[in-house]
């Protein structure tokens, strides 16, 4: 594995290796007085973010530092990108620094793939347009595996704005590959037109979809990517597709509630549901560091220590 661009490219064996190694990373670091491993000492990881991000950028930075790598944070808003520099020119500038890995978030789908043409190091996709967000899907799968004991045979409902969600796309390919039954739930206006080619089932009825779900993943309504009215009002959306306490009670007792964040509390998820013991939202953030440590380790060392 040279890069991590999309979960669609991962084999089941590769995905399970990452999830197994994630657990090992969590165990190895949690038991240390200083939560660091010397594995990537002397290596450089560049965070190249063209979109605002708190969770993902901080998580990758923390992961790299816990592996003792040197981290360079490159913000597009305060760099020559703001003066019109192209992705290629930025990449060539970075290449001159010789980083072993570049973590990129970009508003254009396919930008990480383009970047692989211009840098020698590993490229990790931290989210590109509406296309993919592979480490988010991996941390979601790891969280499910921890909470539910496994993914094979489980039913996962992904609810809301599927159309604009790179998180949904990455989860669909990964979870189906790991043996889960994936169900998409949302208004017809927020479902992609090519959904027939995806390994999913589709429902427009949230209540019915929750009754046998082992996990429900609520997606943020991405208003910043919407140019048209995809639903009448926020209240109407919450009434039809919001997860409140009444709907939570419809789910099996063992079922968990997930959200990639940031949340629109009171819209796609009620505050009491988000803060309930059945919600894994803060766990997902914590698990993100372990997942990104595992991925950086695998890509930069081929699974071997120096």
Structure characteristics:
alpha/beta; 9 strands; 2 domains; Rossmann fold; 38% helix; 5-stranded parallel sheet; globular; 306 residues; single chain; 4-stranded parallel sheet
Element layout with pairings:
Elements lengths: L11 H19 L13 E6 L5 H12 L3 E6 L11 H11 L3 E6 L4 H5 L6 E7 L5 H15 L6 E5 L6 H12 L3 E5 L15 E3 L2 H5 L4 E4 L15 H8 L3 H4 L7 E3 L12 H4 L6 H21 L5
Parallel strand pairs: 1-2, 1-3, 3-4, 5-6, 5-8, 6-7, 8-9
Helix pairs in contact: 1-5, 1-11, 2-11, 5-6, 5-11
Provide a concise account of the structure shown:
The protein has 306 residues and is of the alpha/beta class. The chain contains eleven helices and nine strands.
Q: How is this structure best described in words?
A:
The model has no long low-confidence stretch (mean pLDDT 92). Helices cover 38% and strands 15% of the residues. The strands form two sheets. A five-stranded parallel sheet has the order 7-6-5-8-9. It has a four-stranded parallel sheet with strand order 2-1-3-4. It has two domains: 7-132 and 285-301, Rossmann fold, CATH 3.40.50.1370; 134-280, Aspartate/ornithine carbamoyltransferase (Rossmann fold), CATH 3.40.50.1370. The protein is of the alpha/beta class. The chain has eleven helices and nine strands.
């Amino acid at each position: 594995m040279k890069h991590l661009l999309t979960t669609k490219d991962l084999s089941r064996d590769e995905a399970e290796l990452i999830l197994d190694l994630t657990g090992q990373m969590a165990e190895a670091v949690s038991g240390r007085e200083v939560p660091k491993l010397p594995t990537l000492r002397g290596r450089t990881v560049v965070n190249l973010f063209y979109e605002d991000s708190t969770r993902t950028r901080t998580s990758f930075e923390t992961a790299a530092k816990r592996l003792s790598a040197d981290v360079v944070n490159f913000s597009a808003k305060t760099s020559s990108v703001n003066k019109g520099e192209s992705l290629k020119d930025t990449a060539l500038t970075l290449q001159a620094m010789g980083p072993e890995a570049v973590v990129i978030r970009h508003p254009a789908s396919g930008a990480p793939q383009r970047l692989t043409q211009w840098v020698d190091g590993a490229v990790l996709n931290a989210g590109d347009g509406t296309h993919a967000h592979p480490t988010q899907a991996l941390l979601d799968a790891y969280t499910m595996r921890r909470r539910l004991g496994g993914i094979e045979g489980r039913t996962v409902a992904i609810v809301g704005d599927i159309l604009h969600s790179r998180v949904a796309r990455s989860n669909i390919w990964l979870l189906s590959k790991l043996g889960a039954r994936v169900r998409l739930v949302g208004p017809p206006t927020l479902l992609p037109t090519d959904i027939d080619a995806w390994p999913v089932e589709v429902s427009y009825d949230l209540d019915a979809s929750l009754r046998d779900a082992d996990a429900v993943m609520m997606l943020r309504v991405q208003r910043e990517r919407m140019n048209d009215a995809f639903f009448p009002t926020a209240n109407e959306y919450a009434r039809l597709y919001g997860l409140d306490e009444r709907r939570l009670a419809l789910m099996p007792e063992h079922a968990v509630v997930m959200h990639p964040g940031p949340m629109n509390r009171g819209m796609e998820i009620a505050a009491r549901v988000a803060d309930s013991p059945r919600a894994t939202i803060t766990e997902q953030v914590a698990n993100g560091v372990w997942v990104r440590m595992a991925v950086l380790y695998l890509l930069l060392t081929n699974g071997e220590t120096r």
